[in-house]
Amino acid sequence: MRLEILTPEKKIFEGDVIIATFPGADGSFQIMEHHAPLISLLKEGVVVYKSKESSQNVTITGGVVEVVNNKIILLADGVKV
To answer: Residue 22 sits in a domain of what CATH number?
Structure first.
């Protein structure tokens, strides 16, 4: 599935992943292939995404995520370095 992580300033990541974990407003949740359509608010926390080769993470300050047809778009308010 395809993941895009965007902030108002720039694109942080775009690529294929097998699983992604998000800091939801009501708790952490994971998205895998063929997940049902979803829109969720995110709180500050770590987003972890795994490809077949590696695992990466980014700390966001909040945002919203949309999942449709094996495509995940994360609109982050900002990222912490």
So the answer is: 2.60.15.10
The amino acid that residue 58 corresponds to is V
Closest CA to 59 of 50, 71, 49: 49
Alpha carbons 64 and 52: distance in angstroms, whole number: 25
Q: How many domains does the chain have?
A: 1
- Segment 24-77, tens digit of pLDDT: 999 999 999 999 999 999 999 999 999 999 999 999 999 999 999 999 999 999
Of the candidates 63, 39, 50, 45, which has an alpha carbon nearest to the alpha carbon of residue 3?
A: 50
What is the model's pTM?
A: 0.93
Alpha-carbon distance of 6 to 73, in angstroms, equals 8
